[in-house]
## 1
Amino acid sequence: MSDDLFLKIIAREIPADIVYEDDDVLAFRDVNPQAPLHVLVIPKTHIRTINDMQEHDAELFGKLFLAAKKIAEQQGVAEDGYRVVMNCNAAAGQTVFHVHLHLLGGRGFSWPPG
Ligand code: 5GP
């Protein structure tokens, strides 16, 4: 947990461009954006991957999606559409082991994803 980069952002030990915060959730712009809007939505508690999710985390994960919805509205991409992605472990490309939703918008996205 001590090497959890996102806990350091929550603690304001590392700067971030924060776009949303409530009691349970923090959201900030990705340092290496893959779309005009690329925000990471994270729980304030340390959960490494989706595989570590417990039954009692269900409401918290729901709050990540509610925050993503609000941010999409605030940032003006809700109507056109946006993509929400959560990578789990190496095969999916997870590099930071504190669960996070990627909220991507401001351009079109193809399917299937790469
Ligand atoms: P993952 O690959 O784990 O799904 O996504 C991790 C994301 O965190 C990447 O998109 C990466 O650009 C972003 N990221 C890594 N370090 C930092 C940082 O220090 N600040 C911010 N804002 N984003 C970061």
## 2
Amino acid sequence: MTILVTGGAGYIGSHTCVELLNEGYEVVVADNYYNSVPAVLDRVEKITGKTLKRYNCDIRDRNGLKKIFSENTIDAVIHFAGLKAVGESTRLPLMYYENNISGSVVLFEEMAQAGCKKIVFSSSATVYGNNPIPYKEDMVTGDVSSPYGRTKHFIEQILGDVYKSDNEWSISLLRYFNPIGAHESGLIGEDPNGIPNNLMPYISRVAIGKLPQLTVFGGDYDTKDGTCIRDYIHVVDLAKAHLCAVAKILGTTGIEAYNIGNGKGYSVLDIITAFEKASGKKLNYIIGDRREGDLPAFYADASKANTQLDWHAQYDIDKMCEDTWNFQTKNPDGIK
Ligand code: NAD
Ligand code: UFG
């Protein structure tokens, strides 16, 4: 079985490529390296002892996709390629709509042309907006606070329409909660360009001395310690969820959404404490103002993925912090 992984050189994509190769799949990666480097794929090959096929291809490039589908028999697509910085998306909404939505439409058209109608799509918990917690898949979605989040909601809707128009499609929408951690080899992990927006890479850069101080965004929320609650999930657990989803779509048709989270909420201060324990370092932080757009608390009801995909998260926040720190210390200047 051959899987096309768009955005396969990125953070979640690279960990998923490792799991796919370990499981015996053939892997073809399409990435334009906008937010990654080809060396990541060398490391995927080093970890697994297997090779994958790679194309420097933008998913908006129809001819590039045609070449991939004509040179390979693709059984299913895992679609990670996209821009993901929430704050940037409010400044540059058209760039997000063009890359994420136009790119996805071109990809879906070329899949249909090639007769490949099986896809796992990287969605996000952000589609739930202000729903009560825990989030469940049958809640109304779309009350989203950023253009980034809207691209996820729109692409889910587009795939819904695609399925309605052609019931041969088999579509899995994976709504990720907060992925952190790294492969335990320390060879691949999250390696954002510039100053990180997300909590975990920020913490690890403070711990290693690359950034002076973490600002905790808000200490006055109505939560157990005043800081925001999120559902953190180890990136390897998340990667494995894609294998479960691929197994499912290969044998069925239809469209289903699944929450991929631990089902547990941790505060920012919980994560700081766990990171200090894992790294043996005291973290320099202050409590600052709230960040605009942040919800006080959300976490998943992941029971649908547990029962219907037979997927279960294995790793706790201690392991997430240990693996993040291991990656950070082995790659103080990132992956070159
Ligand atoms: P990432 O930026 O590390 O990986 C995305 C990859 O896609 C990068 O390698 C980038 O170069 C590539 N890419 C971007 N636009 C492309 C294009 N037009 N053509 C080809 N390649 C392109 O991000 P990630 O954290 O691995 O996220 C993967 C997916 O999961 C994204 O769609 C993201 O929105 C979604 N997601 C991520 C999170 C998270 O917190 N990391 C949460 C929810 C959903
Ligand atoms: N935080 C800080 N300081 C920082 C960075 C983050 O205190 O420097 C806090 C945030 O306020 C939040 C928590 O750490 O309470 C997690 O923040 P992240 O930025 O790591 O993650 P978010 O929950 O904001 O974002 C995630 C995904 C997005 C998705 C969003 C909404 O990264 O893709 O959830 O579902 F859109």
## 3
Amino acid sequence: MNRGQLLYEGKAKSVYLSDTPDELIVAFRDDITAFDGQKKDSLAGKGGYNARISAFFFTYLEEKGIPTHFMGMIDDHTMAVKRLNMIPLEVIVRNRAAGSIVRRYPFREGQTFDTPLIVMDYKDDSRHDPMINDDIIIALGLLSRDEIQHVRDLALAVNRHLKELFRARGLDLVDFKIEFGRFGDTILLGDEISMDSMRLWDVKTGASLDKDVYRYDKGDVLSAYAKVVDMMIPKEFGGVQ
Ligand code: C5P
């Protein structure tokens, strides 16, 4: 598959056209950012870790019956995906209270939610991704009420499967963010699933193994990402086409 024109440059990924109109190429860069892009760095190898773990999770979730945009790896930091019409929502699933939910509401850091919470943010950097609700989603024409329910069901299924996988390796999935897009009439899981977009705590030590290490200067973020890749991806998972 040949890489065509650059279509979109995000904070950590670049998206290119391919030879085929309904397929795109996503290159995971080594850039890392936090706090709406106010903190920025480039860390050699980081893009590869996130691309490989995303490929692994997308493959695992497809096996569990969750439809995703993932088609295959082109090299260790580049993947081929179906071209989606992205829905500008950040769908956040929370198993425990951490981050913005603790700043905004009187939850105790680390408190477990009996039922996982789903929070949706409207994806727009210039508006600082405001939290959105069902009525606003419908009024903006982003999703119908039935589609909101479908997206919630998919997000909870992703949570169940990922949580189980992490738990078996001694990691606690605190929260994560996913994004969806339309491919014809179907809604597919898009974007990425990586340490940039989740909180993972070591069950024994409580240590963060995710982007919080970078956000709050908790140590060496590259070693944390490498550790998750090592713990999660079986040696036989090649992924590269
Ligand atoms: O910042 P907040 O606590 O709302 O983040 C919840 C989860 O969603 C975290 O795992 C965070 O890394 C992820 N997130 C993200 N991209 C954003 C906002 C949050 O991946 N723009």
